[in-house]
Design brief:
135 residues, alpha/beta, five-stranded mixed beta sheet, two-stranded antiparallel sheet, globular
Length: 135
C-alpha cells in the first residue's frame, strides 16, 4: 500500500502525501481462526508488533484514527476492543475518538499502563502478560 519511514533519533513517522492509512495489522487479524473475541488497538506499528509477540492480537492506527479505520474497527468480527494507546495527550485523544466512533457497536476496554510507561513497547514481558484492562 505504501512505505512508512521513521526517524530513530526523533521518533518521527513519515508517510507519503495524501495516503489513506488503513489499520495496520488488519490482514493478520483476518488470518486467525477463529477470529479473536478481543483485539488490542495501538497507535503505532511497533506497539502492535510487540503485542503480537505475546499472542495478543492487535492492530495500529498510525496516528489518532481516520474514518476508514473507524469503519474497519466497526466491521471487525470481534466483540471487544481493548484500547492500548499511549499515555500521552495524543493517546488519550485517540481513545476518545475511538470511543466516540464505536458507540453501540463494540464493548470498549482500556489498558492502564504501568506507572512510568509511556506506551506498550516500554512494558516488560511480565507487564504485558499482566496488563490490567478496565471498562
Amino acid at each position: 500500500m505504501f512505505i512508512a519511514r521513521r526517524s530513530v533519533k526523533q521518533k518521527f513517522f513519515q508517510y507519503p502525501p495524501n495516503v489513506q492509512k488503513e489499520l495496520y495489522g488488519i490482514y493478520q487479524l483476518y488470518q486467525l481462526y477463529p477470529f479473536p473475541k478481543e483485539v488490542y488497538i495501538c497507535e503505532s506499528m511497533i506497539d502492535c508488533l510487540y503485542l503480537w509477540t505475546f499472542n495478543k492480537p492487535a492492530c495500529a492506527l498510525n496516528g489518532l484514527g481516520n474514518e476508514l479505520q473507524f469503519k474497519q474497527l466497526r466491521e471487525l468480527p470481534c466483540r471487544v476492543l481493548i484500547l492500548a494507546t499511549d499515555s500521552d495527550e495524543a493517546g488519550l485523544r485517540a481513545r476518545e475518538r475511538i470511543r466516540m466512533n464505536m458507540q453501540n457497536t463494540k464493548i470498549i476496554k482500556e489498558v492502564i499502563l504501568p506507572k512510568g510507561r509511556k506506551d506498550i513497547n516500554e512494558c516488560t514481558p511480565n507487564e504485558i502478560q499482566n496488563l490490567v484492562e478496565v471498562f
